[in-house]
Specification:
Layout (H helix, E strand, L loop, with lengths): L11 H9 L2 H6 L2 E5 L5 H13 L4 E4 L4 H14 L5 E4 L18 H6 L4 H16 L4 E2 L24 H17 L3 E7 L20 H8 L1 H8 L4 E4 L19 H11 L5 E4 L5 H4 L6 H9 L4 E2 L4 H13 L5 H17 L13 H4 L3 H14 L1 E5 L12 E7 L10 H7 L17 H9 L2 E6 L8 H8 L4 E7 L13 H11 L4 E5 L17 E4 L5 H11 L25
Parallel strand pairs: 1-2, 1-8, 2-3, 3-4, 4-5, 5-6, 6-7, 10-11, 10-12, 12-13, 13-14
Antiparallel strand pairs: 9-14
Helix pairs in contact: 1-14, 6-7, 6-16, 7-9, 12-13, 16-21, 18-21
């Protein structure tokens, strides 16, 4: 199915706008730069200069707040000759980048859910949030099949390891976004799910055969194309089976973008590069040259161009050298303008900044979030039917918090380049003494609470055993796990020893508030009498796990990935 925005290719606004642009301005329409609403005034001035001087086509926004971002967008749109295309990485909603906005579940959690209609509803709600914030493109869904437990960059961002399930869920997310007038963007083509290198730091090599790619990695992308996805993001990967050129990144590969994606798969929508500041591609060629090469490979939009002026200069050189024609530039510009017209940018209305925070945290979003969490919670073990609790006396609820794993890009030498991929410390919410999980359980039954850190508050395991001995039921929640596999997800040896001990108790219930792959780091957790997995930690997952234990809801989730020999794809007691 052709993307819907292509119906506007011959629209009068598109053709008139194209005619008004100089050759340089048509190139500039293909360039998107990075914007932040949490930076100083000079950053905004720099962006305004690029808008007024070069006529750039769009801005991908990263950290900040909805209020400040909306104010910036209003000022930028007022000054721009052609309305700007505003985009964001909003895989789990605007909260992936912006404070004071709703965070929906990660895709791994949604992979556990059996009701895909709710994913469509979530897609629509995220689409509404994008529209409210003046955003036309959401770089979602992730269509990668995560079949590598040690994947350092995709992991919890994928719907899982099963290609059909990934495709089905990605399609529902895409339809929800596009039914609200927001361009969806499938990523990371041709498939970033089986990598052990993070493309932010280097160029991952995928050694699978072309037949394997055709059979597995390309499947969700092919299905999304058939359903009318508007755009694709090209990954920074080295795929010798498709392009044998040494050290060739897929972002710069004509065989991958022009021949495979646009030719063999027949994709007619917009192709975006992944961020061109990432080490997986930025180290290969000088600034500006990498942009030109990405365009020559077949990309329509250059995302996160570091030096737009230099990029335009190099692209003009490529035209003069006969490497690409001005007519081809014009065609891609026309596609971009058609997408802008489809998104309603021909009649830009200033964003209403009052109450934007409240409207991005509305009651419907909260209710939907709780419903999603309840549908994803997975019961992996329930030997002896400890769940739901039948005896309410002498229950101890322990919340065990993992150690903090400092992201590798917090290191000074990498922080500047990759700061757009994490939120600043001051953006994090303060922790209460007791967890929501403990509070909800304790509200309904006569339970006592114990809060432990990754060093067991300085106590020995024997001390904890003595404390536990006086209770009939032990409920252990494992909290604050890192979502990526570095440093064992933040799981300390002290934590492992306590979890292994409680796994051997006839009275033990364990709830893991984190990535499914973290289960593999606990040696004997498969022996637990009752085991719950929520895939991540939030107010809603904690409430859902507590309600499951109390018998207020039943489990419906199933594992979207295989963890080890004990926990396999499709496991889950329903």
């Amino acid at each position: 199915m052709r993307p819907a925005f292509l119906d506007y290719l011959e629209h009068s606004w598109v053709l008139k706008t194209l005619q008004k642009l100089s050759p340089e301005e048509r190139i500039a329409q293909l360039i998107h730069v990075a914007g932040y609403s949490n930076r100083e005034e000079n950053h905004e001035k720099d962006l305004l200069n690029l808008i007024e001087k070069l006529g750039i086509g769009g801005i991908i926004f990263f950290q900040g707040t909805p209020e400040k971002q909306a104010q910036m967008v209003n000022r930028f749109q007022e000054k721009s000759k052609v309305p700007l295309m505003i985009s964001i990485d909003g895989e789990w909603g605007l909260a992936m980048r912006l404070n004071n906005s709703t965070a929906f579940p990660y895709q791994m959690a949604l992979g556990a859910m059996q009701d895909n209609e709710l994913i469509y509803e979530m897609g629509r709600e995220i689409g509404k949030h994008c529209k409210r914030a003046g955003i036309q493109v959401n770089f979602a869904p992730v269509a990668d099949i995560n079949n590598n437990p040690e994947n350092p960059v995709i992991s919890f961002r994928s719907f899982g390891e099963n290609k059909e399930k990934v495709a089905e869920k990605a399609i529902q997310y895409m339809k929800g976004l596009q039914d609200e007038g927001v361009l969806a963007c499938a990523k990371h083509f041709p498939g970033h799910g089986d990598t052990s290198t993070d493309s932010h730091f280097g160029l991952p090599v995928i050694s699978h055969s072309k037949e394997r790619f055709e059979e597995t990695e390309l499947y969700p992308f092919r299905e999304l194309i058939e359903e009318g996805i508007a755009s694709m993001m090209i990954a920074h990967l080295n795929v010798p089976a498709i392009d044998p050129t040494p050290n060739m990144a897929s972002t710069l590969s004509k065989p991958i973008i022009t021949d495979l994606l646009k030719g063999d798969l027949g994709f007619e929508g917009l192709t975006f590069t992944d961020a061109l500041d990432m080490k997986g591609v930025a180290d290969l060629f000088p600034t500006g040259v990498v942009d030109a090469k990405a365009l020559l490979a077949g990309n329509d939009v250059l995302l996160f161009t570091v030096d737009p002026e230099k990029a335009i200069e190099e692209i003009k050189n490529a035209i003069e050298n006969g490497e690409i024609t001005q007519e081809e530039i014009d065609w891609r510009c026309q596609k971009v303008l058609a997408a802008k017209r489809w998104a309603g940018l021909n009649k830009f209305q200033p964003i209403e900044t009052e109450r934007i925070g409240a409207e991005l945290n509305n009651n419907f979003s909260k209710k939907l979030n709780l419903k999603l969490a309840e549908k994803t919670v997975t019961l992996l073990k329930n030997d002896g039917n400890l769940i739901p609790l039948k005896h309410e006396e002498r229950v101890l609820v322990i919340s065990l918090k993992a150690k903090e794993v400092v992201p590798v890009f917090h290191k000074p030498e990498l922080a500047k380049q990759l700061q757009h991929h994490f939120k600043s410390k001051e953006d994090q919410t303060n922790e209460a003494d007791a967890t929501i999980f403990q509070n909800v359980v304790s509200e309904k039954i006569n339970a006592e609470s114990l809060l432990l850190n990754d060093e067991l508050n300085g106590k020995t395991l024997e001390d904890i055993k003595d404390t536990i001995a006086g209770y009939y039921k032990i409920i252990l929640g494992i909290h604050k796990l890192a979502m990526k596999p570095r440093e064992d997800f933040g799981i300390s040896d002290h934590m492992k020893s306590l979890v292994n001990y409680i796994s051997g108790l006839d009275s033990g219930i364990i709830s893991v508030f984190g990535n499914a792959y973290a289960l593999h780091k606990f040696e004997n957790i498969q022996n637990a009498k009752s085991l719950i997995l929520t895939y991540q930690e939030s107010e809603y997952t904690q409430k859902s796990a507590a309600k499951l234990i109390l018998g207020k809801i039943t489990a419906e989730g199933k594992l979207p990935v295989s963890v080890n020999e004990y926990f396999q794809f499709g496991d889950g007691i329903v």
